[in-house]
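Sample entry (159 residues):
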Amino acid sequence: MAAKEIPMAGYASKLLNRVDVAQDTMAFHFEKPMGFDFKPGQSADLTLMNPPETDTEGNNRTFSIASAPFENQLMFATRMRDTAFKRSLKKVVLGTVVKVDSAMGSFTLHRNPAKPAVLLAGGIGITPFFSIVRQADHDRAAHKLYLFCSIADQKIHPF
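Predicted structure, serialized as tokens:
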């Protein structure tokens, strides 16, 4: 069953899976709500509707979207800092419904395919580039992409 749009410019989405992708880093996979559109490199606010715990930072966070628009799931990856929000996200049962706000931001690939794109990332900052590179590959974009990433002392797994 497709996710239902939640009033106030958001979408209901179910948590489908979570995976350890590096030390203290997890990827969270959600169903992609019908009508949820985004450009590679954008981010979205994620809100836990009834978290098992909360703190003064609240129940929502902004995450870069690591999945590409052509994919049928939304994926967000994050360092698992010791906050109520992230502890809750890690322990809620699969199938838990969250609110995902419309995508935002302009951290996207430029439109001039004659101009190479150099992408520099460090650590978890790689997440928007996953979306950009996967979509460019899918579209067979004419852009030349050069991705440089530094992740110190980490064994990472593909998202």
